[in-house]
Amino acid sequence: MESTILKSRNFNASFGTNHVVKNVNIDIPRNHIIAVMGPSGCGKTTYLRCINRMHELIPGATSNGEMKLNDEDVYQMHPIFVRLKIGMVFQRPNPFPNLSIYDNVIAGYKLNGIKLPKGERDGIVERSLTKVALWKEVKDSLNKKGSFLSGGQQQRLCIARTVAMEPEMILFDEPTSALDPISTSTVEELFHELKANYTLVIVTHNMQQAARVSDKTAFFYMGELVEYDETKIMFTNPKDNRTQNYITGRFS
Amino acid sequence: MDGKYVKYRLGKSYGFQSLVYLLAFACIVPLLAILFYIIRAGITKINWHFLVNIPKPVGESGGGIANALVGSIIIILVAAVIAVPIGILAGVYLSEHRKGRLAYWCRLSTDILQGVPSIVIGIVAYFWLVRPWDIGFIHHRGGFSALSGSVALAIMMLPIIVRSTEETLKLLPDSLREAALALGMPFHRVMFKVIIPVGISGILSGIMLSVARITGETAPLLFTAFGNPYLSVNIGKPMQSLPLLIFNYATSPYQDWLNLAWGASLILLVWVLFLNIFTKVITRKWKVQF
């Protein structure tokens, strides 16, 4: 049996009185790619942000229920440790504009004040950039600012920054919605490479992307987790009518 | 429509345009006039001797403004040391907590503080630091001192730094903060390693402008730093400063002292001009590109 890395039970999240994630129960298996899809405003991003406790940073945001990472309650841990174990990549590439490419990759160590010998740092930078297929493109310009890169390269730089911290899970919040088609396919190829070492949760409103890249797919609608199954089953033989309607494009 | 009416409207338009140009030019005139007048009167008084000597007693010719120059620099530096950390941290607080009771009161007080007449701030510093007081276990001896002047000037700097820091940091995208937080950084590191460095050009320009603003302040120094005809570097004792020197010597009947006042005015003016230009340069140079 495959091991479960993240488990949610009766998980709820709200902004003030606006209840946006309702009673979500989900088991995420290790080293899998999970796509989370659903129409705009269905709570998929909010749920994702609850996993690494970014949700609570918004004033008025609350959540309750069980969220366990390796049987440890995420909401009992200090958020800083949660975020070190569960990395996040955002919708828009957000490299640190004041740092070089090199420092951006190592930012998680450098800005956290973790001192590493230079050799080790160089190793981490090269390994992380290689993992995101960016090393060849930027190895001669590591001292340039990260914001000089193109959008797709910046997004891969942000993935490298997350990978460098060696998290257990990486959350992607619509990671390709700000990218062109070619960069999108580069990033999607990356997902398959990363799967070997990490568990990926990808929020997307692009159904084709969910079908292309994921092992399992979760469908959110109006804050509820409607259906969660193998991607193949979700797209060929969904059990719930609403999933059926969504994937056939009857509503979006 | 007939041509005559169009011409009339065009004429009106040209008339209005010329008026706008004229009024825009009128804004430049006062500065040019001040520059012209001060430079003409002051430039001949400035030389090396003027910069490194202290004023001579009445009756002797020559003398310089070294004591005021050194005093101004010290008083401003001390004021900056007091105001900059408080101002930046308060600005950080306001940009992070946009709502909330403390933020509201803090914002309101800085706004009001900005409008408080400088002489009133001087009086407050006088009551706090210059007048002796005794609350049982602390005996404050008081007395005029450069430090009390610096405190008064720091109070004047504070609102400018707080608001410029707040405005700068507010403009930074939330994604920057989220990027840092998602890497597991604690709040203070997010602030000191990411948010403040990225907004540094705006924060620095606020500091520079606040320094330019207080450089010429005379009123708060009248009964705090008080002035001193000799060179002093002790911040616990009265100290001369450029605006005080100008104030005292410009109203004196002696030509030598008047010359010193003119020279000092020019120095003050150049200082403020330089700070303003320097601020423009660093905001452009250090601006972080996204």
Which short descriptors sum up this protein?
heterodimer; A: 252 residues; alpha/beta; Rossmann fold; six-stranded mixed sheet; four-stranded antiparallel sheet; globular; B: MetI-like fold; 2 domains; two-stranded antiparallel sheet; 73% helix; Phosphate import ATP-binding protein PstB (chain A); phosphate transmembrane transporter activity (chain A); ATP binding (chain A)
Q: Would you write up a description of this structure?
A:
The complex is a heterodimer of chains A (252) and B (290). The model of chain A has no long low-confidence stretch (mean pLDDT 90). In chain A, strands 6-7-8-3-9-10 form a 6-stranded mixed beta sheet, with helices on both faces. In chain A, strands 2-1-4-5 form a 4-stranded antiparallel beta sheet, with helices on one face. In chain A, helix 5 crosses helix 7 and helix 7 runs parallel beside helix 8. Chain A has 11 helices and 10 strands. By secondary structure, chain A is α/β, with parallel strands linked by helices. Chain A has a domain at 4-96 and 169-247: Rossmann fold (3-Layer(aba) Sandwich). The relative contact order of chain A is 0.18. Chain B has 290 residues and is an all-alpha fold. Chain B has 2 domains: 3-43; 46-285, Orthogonal Bundle (MetI-like fold). Chain B is 73% helix and 1% strand. Chain B contains 12 helices and 2 strands. Chain B has helices at 3-42, 48-52, 66-96, 101-115, 118-130, 146-171, 174-182, 187-198, 200-215, 219-222, 242-250, 255-285, and strands spanning 133-134, 139-140. Chain B is globular and about 75 Å long. The termini of chain B are far apart. The model of chain B has no long low-confidence stretch (mean pLDDT 91). Chains A and B meet through helix 2 and helix 7 of A and helix 7 and helix 8 of B.
